[in-house]
Amino acid sequence: MGILDFGYAYILRPMAAIAFSFYKVEVIGKENVLRDKGFILAVNHSSYFDGPFIAWVLFPRPVHWIVHKKIYEKWYFRPACIMSRSVPVNGSINIAEKILNQGKIIGIFPQGGICCGDEIIKKGHRGVAVLGCKTGIPIVPCYIEGTFDRTKKVSIAPKVFMPLELRFGKPLYFEKCLTEKVPDDVLEDTLAKIVDGINGLHGKG
């Protein structure tokens, strides 16, 4: 077992297990999670709790989160980013492609940053659509509800004993683009379907 595997299994995992024991957790649609292949997990984002929550639910399969390089390089985020196998990006998807082709999971928040509240995604960034079109690898939409703390301006974690729900939708499949640049209309259509897939899980608990 490597250092990263040890940190993930024996440091992050136990910490998450303790943290989530203070909440009423419900997972819906876990049968939609592809067990034998890599996939892209597209999720709404309303709290710093979101990534650890999903990683805890999907353990022992690690989720390699797409993180902007500026965030990855901040000293107070870096240890957690390294142990959680986050992928620093700054426009390039090459590393993410390699991870997906190894049958692993890439997690991405199409909103980019944290959005206030358990609400639908109004606008998504193209990165998730580019990744889906360039690889042809299925995208599993996911919606988290309950991690946002409405009493705080920036939600780090929800109040204890609150219900948390994680809903997985059916995988979305897109044709792999063989050209070097994905046409804009294809990207927009793909992104719209991904966002609709996530938003369609809102309020379905």
TrEMBL record:
Database matches in InterPro entries: Plipid/glycerol_acylTrfase (IPR002123)
Record-annotated Phospholipid/glycerol acyltransferase domain positions: 39-147
CDD domains linked to this entry: LPLAT_AGPAT-like (cd07989)
GO biological process, one term: phosphatidic acid biosynthetic process
SMART domains from the UniProt entry: PlsC
UniProt KW keywords: Acyltransferase, Transferase
Keyword Transferase: yes
Gene Ontology molecular function, alphabetical: 1-acylglycerol-3-phosphate O-acyltransferase activity
PANTHER family per UniProt: 1-ACYL-SN-GLYCEROL-3-PHOSPHATE ACYLTRANSFERASE (PTHR10434)
Listed name of the protein: Phospholipid/glycerol acyltransferase domain-containing protein
Species for this entry: marine sediment metagenome
Source organism phylogeny: unclassified sequences, metagenomes, ecological metagenomes
